[in-house]
Design a protein that fits this description.
single chain; about 130 residues; mainly alpha; 1 helix
Length: about 130
């Protein structure tokens, strides 16, 4: 009877060892696949991070360009305002000059007419 129990124990130990060996091989294969998956994931994540970094650099450059353009537009707008103000003043000066010239022409006309009247009167008196 002891021999039978020893044989059963030996068979059970052999089955247990076989089961453990199979489990270890399966575990080794799972660990290998997990390691490969992690390597692939790391490569993909690194590529994504690099692309994200490049995108952020591009966004920064675009933001800086927008800031520069808006500053240029502000300067251009203030220059246009200054030009408009100067043109308005020039128009006012031209209006004043035109009025002054009209007054001078009118004064010259009156002066010439008066001079001719005096000349004609003096000629007629003699």
């Amino acid at each position: 009877m002891t021999e039978t129990i020893l044989v059963i124990i030996a068979v059970l130990v052999a089955l247990g060892v076989g089961f453990l060996i199979a489990t270890l091989f399966e575990l080794k294969r799972t660990v290998s696949q997990t390691a490969q998956f992690l390597r692939n994931t790391e490569t993909s994540v690194n590529a994504a991070f690099k692309e994200m970094e490049e995108t952020l650099k591009s966004i920064r450059a675009i933001t800086d360009d927008i800031g520069a353009v808006s500053g240029d537009l502000k300067r251009f707008s203030s220059s246009l305002t200054l030009v408009a103000r100067n043109l308005r003043e020039l128009g006012e000066m031209m209006g004043d000059l035109s009025t002054e010239a009209s007054l001078r022409v009118a004064g010259i006309k009156v002066g010439v007419r008066t001079a001719l009247d005096v000349l004609v009167r003096n000629i007629l008196r003699r």
